[in-house]
Amino acid sequence: MKNYIIHDEWKIIEDKFRPEYNEISESLCSIGNGRMGQRANFEEKYSGSTLSGSYIAGVYYTDKTRVGWWKNGYPEYFAKVLNAANWIGINITIDGEELDLATCEVTDFSRILDMQTGILYRTFEATLASGKKVAVSSRRFCSIADDQIGAIEYSITAVNFDGNLTIEPYVDFDVENKDSNYDEKFWIEIAKETTAGAVYNIAETKKTAFQVCTGTEYKIIQNGNAVDLSNAELIQKEKFVSNIINIKTKEGETTTIYKYAANISSFNYEKSEILAKCKEAVGRAVDAGFESLLDAQINAWAAKWEESDIKIEGDIAAQQGIRFNIFHMNQTYTGEDERLNIGPKGFTGEKYGGSTYWDTEAYCLPFYLATADEKVSRQLLVYRYKHLQKAIENAEKLGFSDGAALYPMVTMNGEECHNEWEITFEEIHRNGAIAFAIYDYIRYTGDKQYLTEYGLEVLVGIARFWAQRVNWSEAKKQYVMLGVTGPNEYENNINNNWYTNYIACWTMDYAREAIEFVKSDDVEKYLAVANKMSLNEATETAKWADISEKMYYPANEEMGIFLQQDNFLDKEIIKVSDLDKKHLPINQNWSWDRILRSCFIKQADVLQGLYLFEEHFSEAEHRKNFDFYEPITVHESSLSPCVHVILASKLGKEEKAYEMYVRTARLDLDDYNNDTEDGLHITSMAGTWMSVTKGFGGMRVYDNMLHFAPIIPKQWTSFDFNIRFRGTVLDVKTTQKTVTVTNHSDADLTVKVYGELVEVKGNSAVEVATKS
Ligand code: BGC
Hints:
By secondary structure, the chain is α+β, with helices and mostly antiparallel strands. Helix content is 32%, strand content 25%. The longest helix is centred in the middle third of the chain and has 24 residues, at 498-521. The two termini are 32 Å apart.
C-alpha cells in the first residue's frame, strides 16, 4: 500500500518527483474520452521506468495463444489492446543536452489530474548536468467534446541561461506492447507525411489490419509571437515523423509549444479516408485553438459531473476516492459506439488485453444506467446482441447445438480469446450475467420494448445453452450442473455451483417470460424471431420449466446456508482473520492446489447471487450466508468488496460496510494490491459507485420505482449522489440526521424511502429522518 497521493476533493496530486512510483502515477493520471486514452507519460524524453500507453478504442491485435497443453476448444489467439502511436512526444534539447528527467536534478515537480475538467497538469524545474536550469509547465487533455482530438500546451522557461533550444514534436508508431508474447512489434508502417508544422503517420496492425492515422500540428510562441516554422528540419525515420526547430532563448524567457493531435482509425473510416479525416480533425483543433478546446472540455465534463457526481463531506480521502472512480468510468466509456465495450483496465494499461468480460454486465452497467442517458447502457446490451451469432458458434465449438449460445469469457469481437480451460470452458456463469443485464436495464429504464427488439433472441440463445449444459441425475432425481467454475475462481471444476445453477434457472424462467411478453407486444416480430431461431416454443419452454422446477441446489439446512458447491463443508473452515498475515494474498504465497483445497474465497459467489436476486431471499437467508461466507473471503479480486458493502449495508453491518468501502474506493489511489502500475481497476471503480448508491444509499428499483434506505458511516458528515431515473435527475443527500431527495426535473416523482412512499414534486425536495 502507498500513500503518496495528496488528498484533495477534485484533484489527484503527486507533489514530488518519485521515479520509483512513476508507472503508478502514469496509471492514476491517465486521460481518455471513450475513443482514445493516454497514460500520464511525460511529453519530453524519459529514460527512467515508464509504461508508455496510448490506446485507441476498437484497435487490437490477435496474439498467438501461448499455452503448454493445448486443449480442444481453446481459441487460437488472445486479443490485445495495442499501444498505439505516441502523439504526446516533444523532445527538448538545450545547447545539445537532452531534457530527460531520469538524468537531471528535478525540483518543484508536480503531476496533477484535475478530475473536474479532465485536464492533466505537470510542472517541474530541471537542472541539467551543465547546470542549466529550465522550468516546465504543461497542460494536456483528450477532448471529451470532440473525441478525435487531443491537445497539449507545453511551456519551457530558461531559468539561468541564454542558449539554443531545440524542440522536436513527433508522432512515433515504433512502439511496443509490454505484454507482447514474442517481443514482437505490432505496427507496420504504411505512409507518413512531414511538412513544416505538421506530421502525419499511418500504420497498420499486423494480422488484424487496422489502420490508424495519427497526426499533429504544432505552433510555437515566444514573447507573444509565433515562431516561424518554415525552417523546421523535416525528419522521417521508420514509423517515426517529426520536425526539429532550433531557436534561441534568453534567461527568463518562456517558449510555449501547442501540439494538436488526432487519432483516426479504420475502425471508423475507410482506410483511404483516414489521412484526410485526420487532417480535418487536426485542422478543427488548430482553428479552435487551445483555450477554446479547453472551454469545450470544461463544459463537457461539467455536464458529466452534473449527472454522476457523488459528494462526501467529512472524509476527504473518501471524497477523492469516489470522484476518482467516477472520473475514470466516465472517460472509459461514453456509449457513442455499439461496437465498443469496457476493458477491465479501460485506457490505462494493457492487462486483460483491453477485452470485454462479464465485468461489464455485472458491475459497469448499473453505473451507466443511473448516470447517463439510457442510450448509453443500451449500447452495452446491443454489443452482446450483435455478438449472438459468434456466441452460438462458440458454443458449437464446445459441442453444443441448436442455437445454444455461450458468450465468451473474454472477447474483442464476439470470439472467445481466453485460454485457461477452467475459465474458458467452465466459468460459464458469465452467460447468466449477460441475461441478467437485460432484465436490469429494463427494470431501471422501463424500456421493455428492448425485449422485442433485441433481448428475446439473446435470452433464447442463453436459455438453450443452460438446458443443454445441465444433466438429469438419476441418483438425485434432480437436474445438476457439473464441471463448472463459479465467480470464485479459487475453485475449479466443481459440481453444482449454487450461483451458476441459480442464474441458469433464472435465465430459463426469464426467457419464458420474455417470449410471453414479445408475443403480446408484437406477434409478428415474435414469429419472425421464432422462425429465425427455429424455436420450438412448446417443447423448449417445457424443458426450461422442468429444469427450473427440478434443479438441485446444494445447501445446509441446519446452518441455513446455500453451499457454494457440492461438499463445500468438507473443507476445513478457517476464518481469514485467523490466518497469519504472511499468507496473504494467498494467490501470491500459496501453490494453486493449496488454494483449491482451502475454504478461502476469492470473490463473492453465493453472495453474488444474493446481491443479484435479493428479492428472492429473506433477510435471515442473507444474514446467515453473509455471516458464513464473508469471514472466509479474501477479496483477492477487486470485484469482491463492493458486493460485500451492498450486503453489509442492507444487513446494518455498518462497520463492515465501511471497511469494505475503503478497500474498493482507494484500491488504485493507494495501490492496495501493488499492481496499479499495470493500469487501473475499472470494474472495481464501478463497484465503488455501487457501494455508495446501492450500498450506503440502499438504492434499488422495484415495481417501476426508486427505493432508498440510506445508512451513513459515522466517519462522514454527509453523502450525496446524483442519478438519473427515467428522464428525471435527482439528488439524494444523507446526513447523520436527514435524507433529502431533491428532484431537479419538472415532472413529479414518487419514490420509496425506508419503504415509505414519498412524493417529490418537480424542482423541489423532500426530507425524512435518517434511520440508524
Ligand atoms: C476476476 C473475474 C474478472 C476478471 C477481470 C478476475 O480476477 O476473478 O471475475 O472477470 O478478473 O476483471
